[in-house]
Amino acid sequence: MDVHIPYNCKFCYCTLLNNGRYRERDLNLVIEELKNLDAENITIADDDFLVNENRLKEFIRLVRENNIKKTYVCYGRADFIANHPEIIKELADIGFKYFLVGLEAINDEELNDYNKGTSKEHNVEAIKVINSTSAQCIGLMIVGLSATKKDFDDLYNWIVKHELIHVTISIFTPIPGTPLYEEYKDKLITDKIENWDFLHLVVEPENISRHKFYLYYRRLILKLYKRAKKAGVYEYLDLEHYKKMLSRFLLRKAYLDR
After folding, report:
1. pLDDT in tens, 194-249
2. For the whole model, what pTM was predicted?
3. Are 106 and 78 within 8 A, CB to CB?
4. Is the Cβ–Cβ distance between 104 and 110 less than 8 Å?
5. Which residues are registered as beta bridge partners of 168?
6. Residues 15, 23: contact at Cβ < 8 Å?
7. Torsion angle (degrees, nearest 10) of CA 105, 71, 198, 117
8. Which of 58, 53, 51 lies closest to 2, judged by CA?
9. Could you please report the per-residue DSSP string of 149-208?
10. CA dist 158 to 72, 198, 230, 238, Å?
11. Which of 221, 223, 209 is closest to 253 using CA atoms?
């Protein structure tokens, strides 16, 4: 069955796929595949698995009825999670371990600029809902071009305040084909495709130099890794090696920005 998706985030290319239609696969086929998969851990590739409330309830019922014991990872929107705590708890109970949630920003102004259709209250409540279950929230966030040192600090403090351990921070990147790209295509500072990895600036920062932007960004990432490792995540990460990589990166940027 095809479902029209009403969301139209300006930065997201996923809503451009399949002509903006979300196609739902027959749940009986999904269950049969899960029963026959020789794998304990399942990643649901849908850009948003949490769309149809009734379908999710039926999915939960069928997983229990067929006694399927697996661990799941899926994507979901903050507003759906905030508004459906009972479904999130049920999903966690049947094996959902991680919910990847596009939080994007910590204030309504940026969320509105992205045409996200959510609010900062949705983000806070979504984290609370997931943290109240056995599952964990992986927050996906964006650092905007207007960011200053204070914005980087505020973002870190917000993450700590709301007990978010798993988080990825992307640098604002207008993707070809999206409305944002049309806005920024004449302001691009690079044409190297490898820079479209959400870890590089492809547009000039508005309030600070590129060097300072990268400095604050890498410091933020390092602080988040330290915090996560202290919480038992990223046990494999060699922080001393990461610090050396960070220093080399900053020295190189300082030279290039002269």
Report:
1. 888 998 999 999 999 998 999 999 899 989 988 988 888 776 667 677 667 766 66
2. 0.89
3. no
4. yes
5. 140
6. no
7. -30
8. 51
9. HHHHHHHHHHHHHTT--EEEEEE--PPTTSHHHHHHGGGBS---GGGTTTTS-SB--SSS
10. 27, 21, 18, 26
11. 209
- Strand, coil or helix: what is 75? strand
What is the separation of C-alpha 257 from the centre of its chain, rounded to a whole number of angstroms? Answer: 30
| Rounded distance between C-alpha atoms, residue 241 and residue 237, angstroms | 9
Burial class (CB in 10 A: 0-12, 13-18, 19+), 116: buried
d(CA 167, CA 123): 13
Burial bucket for residue 105 (CB in 10 Å: 0-12, 13-18, 19+): buried
> Would you give the DSSP letter of residue 15?
G
